[in-house]
Amino acid sequence: VQLVESGGGLVQPGGSLRLSCAASGFAFSLYTMNWYRQAPGKERERVADIGNAGGYPNYADSVKGRFTISRDNAKNTVYLQMNNLKPEDTAVYYCNTIQFWGQGTQVTVSS
Question: What whole-number distance in Å separates Cα of residue 1 and Cα of residue 92?
Fold first, then answer.
């Protein structure tokens, strides 16, 4: 199983980024996919999740209305569109399903 995140980077407050997670080695379309993040000195927290068919997305209160999770089962990829980014969104973002994790992608929001 492989989960490979991409799309992180440095962005100014109010900016946007789109993270991608390319999955392989398992039946992607059968599983709920999650995005987590971990900021320095803080515990890892779940940001968003999406059902196997793309329905029933859920979001942490801290990102509701700003982040959108989506997936493309034909491409075995899950996305996280992040708008109106804030400095407190700075973290390493991880893709997850079941017990599998990606390596993470750094998102830094700073002026």
Answer: 20
| 86-to-12, 20, 75 alpha-carbon distances in Å | 8, 19, 30
Closest CA to 66 of 12, 6, 104, 17: 17
pLDDT tens-digit readout, 14-40:
999 999 999 999 999 999 999 999 999
Q: What confidence category does residue 51 fall into, taking pLDDT thresholds of 50, 70 and 90?
A: very high
C-alpha count within 13 angstroms, C-beta hemisphere, residue 6: 4
Pair of tokens at residue 78 = 């899950």
Q: How far is CA 4 from the centre of its chain?
A: 11
The one-letter amino acid code at 46 reads R
85 and 93 in contact (C-beta within 8 Å)? no
